[in-house]
Structure formats: structure tokens, C-alpha cells
TrEMBL record:
<feature type="transmembrane region" description="Helical">
    <location>
        <begin position="96"/>
        <end position="118"/>
    </location>
</feature>
<feature type="domain" description="Major facilitator superfamily (MFS) profile">
    <location>
        <begin position="59"/>
        <end position="507"/>
    </location>
</feature>
<feature type="transmembrane region" description="Helical">
    <location>
        <begin position="325"/>
        <end position="343"/>
    </location>
</feature>
<dbReference type="GO" id="GO:0022857">
    <property type="term" value="F:transmembrane transporter activity"/>
</dbReference>
<dbReference type="GO" id="GO:0016020">
    <property type="term" value="C:membrane"/>
</dbReference>
<keyword id="KW-1133">Transmembrane helix</keyword>
<protein>
    <recommendedName>
        <fullName>Major facilitator superfamily (MFS) profile domain-containing protein</fullName>
    </recommendedName>
</protein>
<feature type="transmembrane region" description="Helical">
    <location>
        <begin position="155"/>
        <end position="173"/>
    </location>
</feature>
<feature type="transmembrane region" description="Helical">
    <location>
        <begin position="185"/>
        <end position="207"/>
    </location>
</feature>
<feature type="transmembrane region" description="Helical">
    <location>
        <begin position="382"/>
        <end position="403"/>
    </location>
</feature>
<dbReference type="InterPro" id="IPR036259">
    <property type="entry name" value="MFS_trans_sf"/>
</dbReference>
<keyword id="KW-0813">Transport</keyword>
<feature type="transmembrane region" description="Helical">
    <location>
        <begin position="448"/>
        <end position="471"/>
    </location>
</feature>
<keyword id="KW-0812">Transmembrane</keyword>
<feature type="transmembrane region" description="Helical">
    <location>
        <begin position="219"/>
        <end position="240"/>
    </location>
</feature>
<feature type="transmembrane region" description="Helical">
    <location>
        <begin position="289"/>
        <end position="313"/>
    </location>
</feature>
<dbReference type="Pfam" id="PF07690">
    <property type="entry name" value="MFS_1"/>
</dbReference>
């Protein structure tokens, strides 16, 4: 059993804070035993809420801005394409799709090793370094002159961005309890929707710039977004704390409380040293493959909407300026729905029904858009369908990542699974980029049907995995003659996962 004392507690053995905390922890009863200092129950609601507010105000805004720039730098290619990128650089047929798709190859290959390095050197240092890298590559894209240049830059951009989201997820799991994570990740991830909306607004403004300094207006898009990203990375490097124990904005007592919260309701061992051999054991857990299959099903609609929404909206018959402007509202409402579902999921402490709901939104939106024959006659319905597409892509991504992070207490295993699962969903951008072919414009019927099918498959797999977990929890309760849920068992007991008798799935 790992030492449950935080660094601050060990440094103050003779003080009253450690004994006072232990006194508050003692006597908190679960359904089957008194866990004393290892209870997973809330020990001081007022103190915990105050601590979470500090984390929320100190960490989430900066991380959200970082992810906003991450999403901008990844998705601005679609906006540039509506302004004639392919034509201006002389792309042949299919080369734009190659540039969109090549990003995802290094994105998947390099995510696990970069995430492991981030664990070794600390996510608070690794995230700003990644941000500086993808910002610099975005700046360089503004200077590209041909297909080869953009192709190479997109490859390295995929490398630089590959582990960003997995490392942010891991970083947040070292500050928040399992039941607090979804809404925080949603606030963070909503930056992606806001980025897509802001990208449309920015493109709307940039494409009206007439300047003799640059030959094509889309270059300004990469210059503005890339330079802002690079500048913000320096601030993030200085600002982000390495861990709760290193956070200068916390008192010693708050550090003790922060350590205890994570030890009993997030990690089996806090700030555990990374072991590749032990971490790879996550692939011996059968549920891992269910999670990864859902990531695959999620990836096609997620990347299809993210990368090709401007092209989908273009079917409504607007010019390039209005097309980018009309992508704003669907992305904004997507962020709102994401927050509603995530907050609801945390409140009810259940994940899979909300994941299924997100997939249902995607499926319905795609089918509605695909079945409309005369867009001009039904333009309001067609535009509404694009809203549903955005509602159904963001929420499952956040809740799925939260779901499997909630069910893996070992920090190394959690990081490895996230660094494989998230890039795997993004790898499906290769599928999406080849589904949306120019020859099928403006309706893109084959792409919409295929994307809807992936959404339906994700709905089924998530439902089946959730049903299995529910059944297994009931089976374990019957065998032990108790009525435990995931929140009753401290994660300090769960290093070996489902092999532990007291393990309960976080549904």
C-alpha cells in the first residue's frame, strides 16, 4: 500500500494540520466498511468546493485558450480552402484530401511516445513546448508555395499536436476527482467548438483584407493564428503548476486535501513514476478494446464535421464569406450542448447514456441532411441538420475520454490508454478525408451515409459496453453480499483494476 500522506503532510508531521485532516477522514462509512483515511466519500464539502474553484479559475481558462489555439491551428486548412488554397498553390485533383489526411498518420504514431515523455518531464512543461511547436509550424504554412511544402508542414504539425489532448486529460486527472472531471474537460473541450466558430469569424474578416504585402488573403489566417499561438506558449510555460504540491496559489492544508482527493478518487498512486511494462498491461483488460472501438466509431463523424463543415454548409448556396460565417452558429450550439451533457453526466455520475445520446444526434443530423433533395426549398431544415451534426460530435469525445479515465486508477495505464484512444479517433480523419470527395460535391451523399453509419455503430457499442458494466457491477455485489458503487471504493485500492474484488465500474 502506497503512503497516503501528501508531501505537505510529511513535511508537517509535528503540526496539527495532518492530524486534523485524519480526524475529519476517520469514521466516514461506506456501504460495507469504514475506510478511514482511504474513504472515497467527500470529507469536507466546503473545503473541496473552495479548492476546486481555485483549480477552475487558475487552470481551466489557460488550458482552454491553449486548446483553442490547438484547434485553430489544426482546422484552419478548411477555411483556407474555401478561399482558394488549392487553386492558388496549383493542387491537382485529390491533393487537398492528401494534405488533410496526412496529418493523422504522425498524429497517431507519435502520440504514445510523446505522451510518455510528457509524463517523465511533467505535463506542465510538455504542453507549452508542444504549443510552441505547432504554432511555429502554422506560421511556416503561411510561407508555403506548393503542395510539397504544405504536405511536409502538415506531417510535422501532426507530430506536434499528437499528444496534446491526451496529456491535458492526464494533467486534469491529477487535480480533479472522477465525478468532477467531465464538466471540466467539457469546459476545456468547448474551446474546440469556439475555435471552429471563431475560425469562421476570423476567416470572414481576413478574407476581406486587400493588401499588397501578401498575394493571397488566406496567408493572413496562418500568420495571425500562428503568431498568437507562439506568444501564448511562453505565458503558459511560466504559468502552469507542475502539480498540486507545486501550486504556489495553494496553502499547505489545501495541498494536503488535494493530495488526498486524488489518492482516493482518481489515482492508485499519486505522481507515480512511469513504467512502460506495467502501463502496457492496460491492453490485457477486455474493456479497453470496447473503448477503442467506440473511439473509432466516434472519429469519423468528429473529424468529418470538424474538417468539412465549411464544405457541407457551402451546399446551401452562399459565397465563401457567408459560408464561413454560417459555420459559427452550429459550432457555438455544439459547445453549449457539450456543456449541458457533461454537467448532467457529472451530476448523475454516469457516462454511457450521454455518449449514446451524442451518437444519436450525429446519426439523425447526417441522415436529415443526406435525404434532402432540394436544399433551397428546405434550407432551414438543412441548416438545422448541421446544428445536430455539431451537437453529436463533441460530447461523446469528452465523455468517452472521461469514461475510461474514470475506470483506470493506475496513472501510467491511464496515460497510455488515452494516448492511444484519442489519436485513434483522430486517425479516422483519414477515413473522413477520403469520404468527402470533390466529385460528390455539393451534396456529399456517400460521405454523409458512411458517417451516419459510424455514428449508429458507436451508439450500439457504447450501449452494449455500458450494459455489460452494469451487469458486472450487480454480479460483484451479489457475490459479496453488498451494494457498492464506484464512488464507494477508493482508487488507492484499484491499481490492478477489475482483478480487484472490490472493483466497481464507473458507468
Amino acid at each position: 500500500m502506497a503512503d497516503v500522506k501528501s508531501p505537505a503532510m510529511r513535511d508537517s508531521e509535528s503540526g496539527d494540520k495532518g492530524s486534523d485532516l485524519a480526524h475529519r477522514l476517520a469514521g466516514v462509512e461506506s456501504n460495507r466498511e469504514v475506510y478511514s483515511e482511504e474513504t472515497a466519500q467527500v470529507i469536507d464539502p466546503v473545503a473541496e468546493r473552495a479548492l476546486c474553484r481555485k483549480f477552475d479559475f487558475r487552470l481551466l481558462p489557460v488550458l482552454a485558450v491553449m486548446y483553442l489555439f490547438n484547434a485553430l491551428d489544426k482546422g484552419n486548412l478548411g477555411n483556407a480552402e474555401t478561399s482558394g488554397l488549392s487553386k492558388d498553390l496549383g493542387f491537382a485533383d485529390g491533393q487537398y484530401n492528401l494534405i488533410v489526411g496526412i496529418f493523422f498518420v504522425p498524429y497517431v504514431i507519435f502520440a504514445p511516445p510523446i505522451a510518455m515523455l510528457a509524463k517523465k518531464f511533467g505535463p506542465a512543461r510538455a504542453l507549452p513546448v508542444m504549443m510552441f511547436s505547432f504554432g511555429s509550424l502554422t506560421l511556416l504554412t503561411a510561407a508555403s508555395r506548393n503542395f510539397s511544402g504544405v504536405f511536409a508542414l502538415r506531417w510535422f504539425l501532426g507530430m506536434a499536436e499528437s499528444a496534446f489532448f491526451p496529456v491535458v486529460i492526464y494533467y486534469l486527472t491529477t487535480f480533479y476527482r472522477r465525478g468532477e472531471l467531465a464538466r471540466r474537460l467539457a469546459i476545456f473541450y468547448a474551446a474546440s467548438n469556439i475555435a471552429n466558430a471563431f475560425s469562421g469569424l476570423l476567416a470572414f474578416g481576413v478574407f476581406q483584407i486587400n493588401s499588397h504585402l501578401i498575394d493571397h488573403s488566406w496567408r493572413w489566417l496562418f500568420i495571425i493564428e500562428g503568431s498568437c499561438t507562439v506568444l501564448f506558449s511562453f505565458f503558459a510555460f511560466w504559468y502552469l503548476p507542475g502539480s498540486a504540491a507545486e501550486a504556489k496559489f495553494l496553502t499547505a492544508e489545501e495541498k494536503d486535501l488535494a493530495y488526498h482527493r486524488i489518492h482516493v478518487d482518481s489515482s492508485s498512486t499519486v505522481n507515480e513514476e512511469f513504467s512502460l511494462k506495467d502501463s502496457l498491461q492496460i491492453f490485457r483488460m477486455p474493456a479497453t478494446y470496447g473503448f477503442l472501438l467506440i473511439e473509432i466509431c466516434l472519429g469519423v463523424p468528429l473529424q468529418g464535421v470538424s474538417l468539412f463543415l465549411p464544405q457541407i454548409v457551402q451546399r446551401l448556396g452562399y459565397d465563401k464569406v457567408k459560408t464561413n460565417l454560417y459555420t459559427v452558429a452550429p459550432n457555438v450550439t455544439g459547445a453549449v450542448v457539450l456543456l449541458v451533457l457533461a454537467f448532467s453526466s457529472d451530476f448523475l455520475r454516469i457516462r454511457f447514456p450521454f455518449i449514446c445520446l451524442g451518437f444519436a444526434f450525429t446519426f439523425i443530423g447526417m441522415i436529415i441532411y443526406a435525404t434532402i433533395q432540394d436544399v433551397q426549398a428546405q434550407i432551414q431544415v438543412a441548416y438545422y441538420a448541421t446544428f445536430m451534426m455539431c451537437w453529436g460530435t463533441s460530447a461523446p469525445s469528452v465523455l468517452l475520454s472521461t469514461w475510461y479515465n474514470n475506470n483506470v486508477a493506475d496513472e501510467g495505464k491511464r496515460l497510455v490508454l488515452t494516448s492511444v484512444g484519442v489519436p485513434l479517433a483522430n486517425l479516422m480523419g483519414l477515413v473522413a478525408s477520403n469520404l468527402f470527395q470533390t466529385r460528390d460535391a455539393p451534396k456529399y451523399l456517400p460521405a454523409l451515409i458512411a458517417t451516419a453509419s459510424f455514428g449508429a455503430c458507436g451508439f450500439v457499442v457504447a450501449g452494449l459496453l455500458g450494459a455489460y458494466m452494469t451487469f458486472d457491477n450487480k454480479r460483484r455485489n451479489r457475490q459479496q453480499g453488498v451494494n457498492l458503487t464506484a464512488q464507494d471504493v477508493p482508487t488507492s485500492k484499484l491499481k490492478d483494476g477489475p482483478q480487484v474484488q472490490d472493483f466497481r465500474w464507473f458507468l
